[in-house]
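Example 9 (inverse folding). The structure is encoded as follows.
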């Protein structure tokens, strides 16, 4: 479990995914939050909901009024057993889901209060604070369930949870093997499904294709290596699963908006992937 403050870059970089569920609260400033093909303008008090390992996303600050967030990320197991219903806001088709809860809505105001309480409680570390954090996490997820309501999943929630669970071995396989020349057949084998059923499961559940999920992982890893190492572009391309330097340059430039070398040049001046240890806390509940 992680809780910490973050100020996004003032220029857009490639979207990424991670294994944890995430709730973000804009504390100040302005900017944009990108989820796949969706773009949300951000203002103080807005809340954002992010699924685990599914929907690519990235925040960007306004150059004049940079945004600052507090992000709370956690594994589904942190909610405890027999509380699957609280996961409902995080199980969605990205093309049918509103990730932003505007600041003027009651749910955003409640979540803002709870997130600030969470930060204060953690920093003070008073007696039995772990149990208080667990209670605040349950309240946060309950507010989200009430806000999105039964329409959040566009159907039977148990069916959606089952599909979400069915996808996890495939998503885990992609995270572990995207650097290799994996195919739909490989992912299907990890899911014990046919290729056609696998492709349908990804597109129907997530609203995005299997190839796009694999590409997102490869691009995010390439961005990390470009920013954090001096390895040659050709070596990075092959290390991230691209079959040629030409395909790497084409996909990278189409998605990120700049070439790999230009991205590296910019990253030399802005620590895009570095996290400030003083601003992020890791919790074990």
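The amino acid assigned to each position is listed next.
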């Amino acid at each position: 479990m992680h809780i910490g403050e973050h100020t996004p870059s003032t220029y857009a970089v490639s979207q990424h995914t991670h294994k944890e569920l995430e709730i973000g609260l804009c504390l100040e400033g302005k900017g944009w939050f990108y989820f796949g093909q969706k773009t949300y303008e951000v203002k103080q008090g807005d809340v954002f909901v992010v699924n685990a390992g599914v929907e690519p996303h990235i925040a960007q600050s306004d150059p004049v009024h940079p945004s600052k967030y507090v992000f709370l990320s956690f594994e589904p197991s942190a909610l405890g057993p027999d509380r699957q219903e609280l996961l409902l806001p995080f199980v969605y088709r990205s093309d049918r889901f509103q990730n932003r809860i505007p600041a003027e809505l009651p749910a955003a105001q409640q979540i803002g209060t709870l997130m600030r309480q969470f930060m204060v409680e953690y920093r003070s570390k008073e007696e039995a604070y772990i149990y208080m954090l667990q209670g605040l996490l349950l309240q946060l997820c309950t507010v989200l369930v009430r806000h999105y309501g039964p329409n959040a999943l566009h159907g039977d929630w148990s069916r959606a949870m089952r599909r979400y669970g069915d996808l996890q071995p495939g998503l885990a396989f992609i995270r572990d093997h995207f650097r290799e020349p994996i195919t739909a057949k490989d992912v299907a084998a990890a899911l014990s499904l046919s290729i056609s059923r696998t492709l349908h499961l990804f597109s129907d559940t997530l609203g995005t294709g299997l190839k796009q999920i694999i590409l997102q992982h490869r691009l995010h890893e390439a961005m990390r290596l470009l920013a954090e190492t001096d390895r040659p572009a050709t070596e990075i391309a092959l290390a991230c699963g691209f079959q040629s330097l030409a395909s790497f340059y084409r996909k990278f430039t189409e998605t990120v908006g700049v070439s790999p070398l230009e991205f590296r040049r910019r990253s030399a001046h802005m620590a895009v992937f570095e996290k400030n240890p003083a601003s992020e806390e890791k919790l074990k509940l």
